[in-house]
């Protein structure tokens, strides 16, 4: 099998990322050499690849579904929002520039060359590339500068599936309307629909699916069921669940974890591993009362450390954390959260704020440097190895009061306050169990950590569930035909009420392929 496919969405959060991962896992189990691709991603949840760059965590998960190592080629353009109007632009995993929403449009000509080069390289390395779109292809205000949706499909003749979320309502209008708002060329590439997150008897849905097929001339390739307890990596903090429940405790007591939901939370997946432990109840919160009452409070990473620290103070959350420090109740800071625990933060790089006071809960001073630290370090803590960590940060912490803190991974701890810049450390099973044992003891909880929870195995099981869902509920023969042969010719057009603006011209072209 050789070819490509684009998975687009009738809306954001329709399930593109997980459907792409499911298709990748299905193909990999069939023995197909397959890789994921997302031309442009906007997310503050990123992963560090073996080739030393940042990509969206969803693409790292999809690479895992393929059984391959993640690469910066799989997500050549990554936007990390630093505010409502500004994003940091990464190209092939490295900082490229900072741009406003309007200014970013001017970059797209150059970025398109890189996107196509990345895609073409992957197509040369793998038999199949499964591409994920961004947002919706029917965002007509953005079509002229599109990178990840129908522009990519047009450039490389990609057959396109549109997936819709039935759980949020308006499914048929969303699927039909997405197709109707595309121009003739784009419509010719949309070869079918997928319904996602259906609960109940799908016979109730069948009449509507038949009518949709009749109206559009395109088949519905399947109805994916709602998959409960699926907690794979979120694309962004906007889709964070408010709670993660590890299930029935091993012993008599539970451990309550309050994770502070910062405005610019990054790498929120750090606490997912805690929430997979039986008896651990993780709750994302903005409430000082929740933070005060929890057994463990977590300050997560942030894409805007100084700004989020100011917000923390405005909400009164700083007082809740400081009170915990006085009482000796556990507090954990990760990356940006660790920096907030410092005595001072000097930042001329990210915020330009100069030196500002931190929470003063750890005897360190943080200074932001221009070059970002990216890596996949290893280490030990509590006598347990940590082999799953990665780091992404500008801030460097320096100990200011020797004898008042002990090393903790690459950071420090003082009493029941811990800080580290390492993301992903809790995916190391032995370390996670040892840390939870320490935190429970400091909180005065009679909590028993399960001896056999394996985060990697749970992730693999959940990826297999996605692959099973694709195999059992989608027309895989039709998927195979689309991947190998492309969109069938002569698909009917739906009258488009608009004249679409012409896309920006590009010059990169392969024989037999279109340019706009």
TrEMBL record:
User: One Pfam family for this entry, by name?
Assistant: GATase_3
CobQ/CobB/MinD/ParA nucleotide binding domain sequence ranges = 6-234
Q: Which InterPro entries match?
A: Class_I_gatase-like, CobQ/CobB/MinD/ParA_Nub-bd_dom, CobQ_GATase1, CobQ_N, CobQ_synth, GATase_3, P-loop_NTPase
Which residues are the active-site ones? 335 (nucleophile), 423
- Residue ranges of domain CobB/CobQ-like glutamine amidotransferase in the record: 256-430
| Keywords associated with the record | Cobalamin biosynthesis, Glutamine amidotransferase
> Record's superkingdom?
Bacteria
Q: In which pathway does it act?
A: Cofactor biosynthesis; adenosylcobalamin biosynthesis
What ranges does the record give for the region Disordered, renumbered to this chain? Answer: 486-516
> Bias regions of kind Polar residues — which residues?
504-516
Of which family is this protein a member?
Belongs to the CobB/CobQ family. CobQ subfamily.
Role summary: Catalyzes amidations at positions B, D, E, and G on adenosylcobyrinic A,C-diamide. NH(2) groups are provided by glutamine, and one molecule of ATP is hydrogenolyzed for each amidation.
| Protein name per its UniProtKB record | Cobyric acid synthase
Protein's organism: Jatrophihabitans lederbergiae
Gene from which this protein is expressed: cobQ
